[in-house]
Task: structure prediction
Amino acid sequence: MLTEELQSAVNNGTMLPLMEEFYTIQGEGFHTGRAAYFVRIGGCDVGCHWCDVKESWNADLHPPTSTDVIVEHAAKHANTVVVTGGEPLMWDMTLLTQKLKAKNLKVHIETSGAYPLSGTWDWICLSPKKNKLPTQTVYDNAHELKVIIYNKHDFIFAEEQAKNVNSNAILFLQPEWSKKDEMTPLIVDYVMNNPKWRISLQTHKYLNIP
Ligand code: SF4
Result:
């Protein structure tokens, strides 16, 4: 249990439950191949059964960390910062993004969109989940829609989500890692038949980097 003071700092975004932070290469989506400092915020209640970061779900396990400290670490490493989770939009991202941008960093987010948008972002990657659909603010502001393909029904879900997102969003289909051998050939066919979509692969997993 957090003290009242810490809880209030987390609630207003002065502190955030930080799970981990690391400098690596963005492996997925539009910015694949770009060096970036990843900030993984704890807390997620979306509950995807194939989630590969289930340790992130319980925010109480991740220490409230000052946004000043997160920004100081990030600024040492990269000019692009990717805020991920967990589901970072469970928390108010206003202060964190303001402080990162004050250091002239490019600020990206990876989100399921399950909570209303907060913060100021240079790039919003929306990866919607069937369990808890995105809020309108995230559909309206996403730069990229990245749908994870775990089974054939996910192609139908992807088309539904493409109708909801703003018309400028770039559309990606990405095989879920444990199903990649089965799903990647289907995605290849699908993209050739429906070229508004592009393929995203989890290249960091092929490269064996975080
Ligand atoms: S939204 Fe992301 S972090 Fe949350 S359960 Fe799904 S895959 Fe895991």
The longest strand covers residues 15-25. The chain has a mean pLDDT of 97.
